[in-house]
Amino acid sequence: MTVPPEITPAPSGPFRWAAETDAGKIRPQNEDTFFADPETALFVVSDGMGGHRGGALASGIISEDLPVMIENALDRLKVGTTRTVRSLLERAIAEQSRQVQLEGTSETGYEDMGATLVIALLRKRRCFVANVGDSRAYRLRAGRFTQLTRDHSVVSELIERGHISPDEALDHAASGQLTHYIGMGEKVRSHVRSFAIMKNDRILLCTDGLTDMVGNRDIAGILKAEADPQAACKSLVAAANRAGGHDNITALLIDWVGSG
After folding, report:
1. C-alpha to C-alpha distances, 111 to 71, 97, 107, 208, 236, nearest whole angstrom
2. Host domain of residue 217
C-alpha cells in the first residue's frame, strides 16, 4: 500500500505522511501491517511474529481493532491531559493484547500467534509514542536522530544491564527473542512517552525488517537526504532489501510542517 504524502490539516496541526511496506527478499508472505488516520492523526505499525503461526492474522487484527479502541476512548475522554492520554494508550494496548491472546486460543493452530506494535498519536501539538516488542519509533530533529522507543527483547535487556555491548548484540544467540509482545499470556506492559512536537520534526515508525538490515546512521542519512516522505520510505525499504531483505520491511514517516 502506497499513500501520497499530502499535507493534512488535523486538530493537532498540519503534517504530511507516507508509508511503504514490502515482504523483503526471503519471506514468502508480508506479515507487517500499518494503519493511518490523518483525521485523528493516529498511526500504527505492527509486525506479525515470524516464528509464530498466525503472525499475519495477529498484526491484521491489531491494525483493524486497536485504532478503533483508541479513537473511541479518545472520544470519551473528558480531561485530555498528557497523563490521561498516556494511560489511555497503555490500557488500550493491554486490552488489545488480551484479545489477540484469546483469539489465538479460540483458533486451532494459532495458540502462539503474536505481533509487535508501535504507535504515534499527534494530539494538541504533542506526539505520543507507544511500543511493544522491537518495532521502533525514531525522531529526526535539527539533524539529530533519536530512538524514541524501548526494545522489549532479551538482547536489549542484556545491553541495559551491561552484560554485553551493542556490537556483541549484533550476532548474539538471543537475537530476535522478545520479552513482551501483543498476544502474550501475561499482561503486556507497553513503553509510552510523549514530547512537544516542533516544526520540521520527522517521526519514523518501522519494523525490525528495516532496523536489522540498516544501521541508525544510514537510516538518518536517508531521512536527511530525501525531503519527500514517500521517496524517503521507498529509499528505506530499498536499502533494507539491498542489505539482504531478511524480513518483512515497513516504514511509515510523519513530517510535522506546522509551527512548534
Report:
1. 28, 13, 7, 23, 33
2. 7-149+181-256
